[in-house]
Amino acid sequence: MLPSANSLPARLRRTLLAGLIAAAVVFPVSAATTPDVPAPAAARFAEGTSASERYAANLADLGEAARMAADAGRVERAAKLRAMTAGGTARFLSFDGHGTGRAVEVLGDLATADRIAVLVPGSDTTLDTYQRFRAGALALQQRLQAEHPRSAVVAWLGYDTPGTVSTTVLTTARADDGARKLAPFLAELQRLSGSGARQSLLCHSYGSVVCARTETGPQVTDMALYGSPGTGADTAGELPTAARVWAGRGGDDWIADVPHTRIAGIGFGVDPVDPAFGARSFAAGTGGHSDYLRRGTTSLDSLARIVLGTTAPTEASHA
Question: Which of 14, 32, 96, 254 could form a disulfide with 102 if both were Cys (CB 3.0 to 4.6 A apart)?
């Protein structure tokens, strides 16, 4: 029997009610005022297609999508798409310019990398906000390269992220869909990368829900959850992975105030930084929810060391 609304903790009632009301108002308005954007059909690749062939095809599609958006009067989207090409040097394993969009970009050389970080973003990450996501990926790649040249970062916007103010951000539905796409991508990434390359999943905010629901192979050695609202699981041992599971939260991250409760499919349960969850702890510094991959931060350094396998013993000791 489900608990009645009056039996829920007061703060949880307020949080859920505010989210649902805001979603009821905001979501229909945003849907009505954000029409679909014309774009070429997303490229499909035969098994065995090389990374370089994918890069060339997707870069061409990205340019065509920018042209089509401009012709349709979507000037801002066109400008954002042109910025994504990085002057013709960007490397995308996949790209789809329809709607809010999807894109998977590689920073570094997959063929020679033996350490690969896959970034999985949270809510409101779209083609229109892509440069913010890419900036974190670039900061991480530069930090990794400084210590280990044979490294690469994959910015994986491979699912439809929920809106921060929407009903979809309160449940695991988008995460389940994302997990079904992420699992085969990780297997394909292993084929495209150097022999024996080690993968790490770095999962921000709602992206941590995606990662926690993704079945991973032995090539995924580490999974870091940061800025996480929870995963839908009670313990790290319940996640469908043999990877080491890490959790960290910045001192000024508002996600700490989100009730870590799961009732009738709403919410995500146990806080991953709670020792009861069983994740390894990493230092995340004093930053806010969007600061984890900022240059010069404690959190960026910690995440880089997780990818490189050089994490300090004092951080791992909380497992």
Answer: 96
Contact between 240 and 248 (Cβ < 8 Å): no
Alpha carbon distance 221, 187 (integer Å):
13
Tens of pLDDT along 10-57? Answer: 444 444 434 433 333 333 333 333 458 899 999 999 999 999 999 999
- Looking at residue 266, what DSSP letter applies? B
Rounded CA gap, 176 and 299, in Å?
27
The predicted-structure confidence for 202-230, as pLDDT tens digits, reads as follows 999 999 999 999 999 999 999 999 999 99
φ, ψ of residue 233 to 5 degrees: the values are -110, 155
Which burial class, exposed, middle or buried, applies to 2 when counting CB atoms under 10 A from its CB (0-12, 13-18, 19+)? Answer: exposed
Give the tokens for residue 58.
């997707």
Q: Report which DSSP code applies to 163.
A: P
User: Contact at 8 Å (CB) between 167 and 129?
Assistant: no
pLDDT at 109 over 80: yes
pLDDT at 16: 45
pLDDT in tens, 160-187: 999 887 888 888 899 999 999 999 999 9
Instruction: Determine contact, residues 305/312, Cβ cutoff 8 Å.
Output: yes
Average pLDDT over residues 257-261: 88
CB 248 within 8 A of CB 284: yes
pLDDT of residue 315: 56
Partners of 225 in beta bridges: 203, 247
Q: Are 112 and 150 in contact (CB under 8 A)?
A: yes
> Which helix (H) or strand (E) element contains residue 220?
strand 220-226
